[in-house]
Amino acid sequence: MNLKINLDSPHIKLKGLGGYRIEVLKSDLNIHSIADLFHLIPNRYVDRRKFYKINTLAASSTEVQIIGEIMDIKKIRNTSGERLKAIFRDETGSIELVWFKGISYMQKKIKSTETFVVYGKLNEFGGSLSIVHPEIESLHSFKLKGSKGILPVYPSTEKCQKAGISSVFLRQIIKEAFDAFGNHIHEALPLHLREEFGWPEKRTGLQELHFPSTFENLQKAQFSLKFEELFYLQLQLLEKKQLRLKNIKGFEFSKIDTYFNTFYKQHLPFELTEAQKRVLKEIRKDLGAGVQMNRLLQGDVGSGKTMVAVLSSLIAIDNGYQCCIMAPTEILAKQHYNSISELLQPLEINIKILTGSTKKKNRETLHDELANGNLHILIGTHALIEDKVIFKNLGLAIIDEQHRFGVAQRSKLWKKSKLPPHVLVMTATPIPRTLAMSYYGDLDLSVIDELPPGRKPITTAHRTDASRLKVLKFVKDEIAKGRQVYFVYPLIKESEKLDYKDLMDGYHALSRDFPMPDYQISIVHGQMKSEEKEFEMKRFVKNNTQIMVATTVIEVGVNIPNASIMVIESAERFGLSQLHQLRGRVGRGAYQSHCILMTSDKISDDSKQRIESMVQTNDGFKLAEIDLNLRGPGDLMGTQQSGVLNLKVSDLIKDSQILHLARKKAQDILREDELLLLEKNKIIKNTLVQIMNDKAFWSYIS
Ligand code: ADP
Ligand code: MG
After folding, report:
1. How far is the CA of 277 from the centre of ligand 1 (A)?
2. Strand order, beta sheet including 484-488
3. Within 13 Å of residue 464, how many CA atoms lie on the same side as its CB?
4. What secondary structure letter does DSSP report for 485?
5. How far is CA 663 from CA 188, 314, 437, 668, in A?
6. What local confidence, expressed as pLDDT, does residue 68 receive?
7. In terms of C-beta density within 10 A (0-12 exposed, 13-18 middle, 19 or more buried), how is residue 469 classed?
8. Atom of ligand 1 nearest to the CA of 299
């Protein structure tokens, strides 16, 4: 029996499950088959094993079940509408039951003098206890239906409710389905894993999910089901990675030679941090392995990713290959170009820059040099992936701030050489490890988790317009000490015109607060020509201007150590990761730096939480976790959840412990038995094959 069998197949006869209800199950609960039904995860459980005496109820006992009788029941009508009020009594005391809806139905249902079982959430109002809209059932039918125990509460929708698909109904058809098809449920986890953790068989686990015997058993069942889901997710990702390592050959950078060694020994401007050293080692190992490197380098803003990029490119050049560094904006490309040229100046390496504004004549020589191999490092923007740009032998592609580049763009770069070049993607968006593991499970991950020494943590404050004068005074004092300041305004596409006005208004106001000739102000925004932008940037870099008014153009990577204050206007309109990125523009020198988040007086709870998180921590990874909780993984990655992450039982955030365990176990098992040939892993192999064939995650239980 295939449990993927459609619910309206003639083989399935579940009481009360007819055409319309099947439609609703499909449309609203995504249940199409018996297998889906078995994997319908309850939202929560209610404990209907225990009965309370009324005189023991306290406002703090939330959901309670009592047995008693209805003493008095009457309809009350006042200005606020109608309600039904009953006094419910047991031998120890009484409590009020209240209904606002379904009044006449309830009146009919409880006119008798029977004993009732009442269940619901306790309310306290003016010192007296009540239950609003309790579940109520005669003791007689309660005993008959066996509504005792720990009961699941299933997800529901309005349509479900109208169609009579209640938790009671679902429990009943799931029970029937179990009786009829339960013995077709296949084991999905091997015995050695189940024994190690004391997990039940799959069938028992599913049974516990819907008909828990104890909370302890339920917990074990939930854990093992989540583990199972995440385990197979990780196995698939790890296998994908293995496949890549086996099948995609890459250039072998076998030696570390003069360029690298000379630079490392004689021209390194500072000692690398331990994290930089470790990451570099990981990269070196990849580059020498003869397999294409595909590595994600994560490091908080200011952690020194550029130096890692530079040293990696020297390895490429030592082995006779070319290298390119791609940046998301022209400003950033220029900055990379300037700082890297300066660093490598003693080595006589040919470095060029290519952006949209590169002059035609320069472009032509550049194309020639690229094609004949005289150009070692090409730095640039998207212009790098134009068809005309042809390398002689591109060996390493470094992509800075990857979240701005699409995957398609990346693979375009890829097509430019005989073998795919090694790829190093650098990002300051600190994707939480748990998420990275799932999204990039087939990518290798390097993390710089340490800042260069001597940095003073940036202090962050939240201020409203009411204290603007104080903020300006503070800024003036810092400028008097020789520091420089950023004022950043939001620029969000849909409302660009308005934002532009905000920016210009802000600029004019600041020009009055910081008048010439004592103060000089630069301004940079997206509507300026790139020469103008560059001119203004240069003035600020050279400390000819003390204030930089900008939109998020400066968001990524700009490095001006003397700038020590970042004022973010309308901070409530920025996302958390963006705020963190912006803050990273300061705190790059030896000075105490400050980030001031300006907002209006009234901001939403979400904004408040973001701002507070910013004030509380400088840790990009922590902020990313918070962001993830606020926005969910799909949003955070700027993509829809990919198919493989179509998780049913588990939650990447809440179940991150289980995810780690699942990954570790998957790794251990593959390490011992790469092809899953051992008898004890046969179940895993079979299950994986099923998943691959069916593409639908839960299909393999049949
Ligand atoms: P990001 O990771 O944000 O790209 P950068 O590479 O721009 O960071 O580095 C930030 C600053 O820190 C630069 O001024 C750089 O020269 C400096 N830096 C990087 N590594 C070190 C180090 N190991 N010791 C001291 N300063 C460093
Ligand atoms: Mg950078």
Report:
1. 13
2. 459-464, 594-599, 563-568, 484-488, 547-550, 521-524
3. 6
4. E
5. 16, 34, 9, 9
6. 92
7. exposed
8. 2
CA pair distance 33, 565, nearest whole angstrom: 59
Residues 6+ positions from 238 with CB-CB distance below 8 Å: 441, 442, 666, 667, 670
Residue nearest to atom 1 of ligand 1 (CA): 302
Q: Is 587 within 8 Å of 457 (Cβ atoms)?
A: yes
Residue with the nearest Cα to atom 27 of ligand 1? 452
Q: Which ligand is nearest the CA of 556, by number? A: 2
The token pair at 294 is: 């595909």
Which residue puts its alpha carbon closest to atom 19 of ligand 1? 304
Query: Cα–Cα distance between 122 and 54 in angstroms, integer?
Result: 11
Ligand having the closest approach to the CA of 277: 1
Single-letter residue type at 521: I
Weakest mean pLDDT among 106-110, 268-272, 537-541, 686-690: 106-110
Atom of ligand 1 nearest to the CA of 308: 6
Q: Which residues pair with 606 in a beta bridge?
A: none
For tokens 């404990």, the residue is 47
Reported as a pLDDT band with limits 50, 70 and 90, residue 637 is very low
pLDDT of residue 413: 63
Residues touching ligand 1 (Cβ under 6 Å) are 270, 272-273, 276, 299, 301-307, 428, 452, 557, 559, 588
Helix (H, G, I), strand (E, B) or coil at 435: helix
Q: Report residue 499's pLDDT band, with 50, 70 and 90 as the boundaries.
A: confident
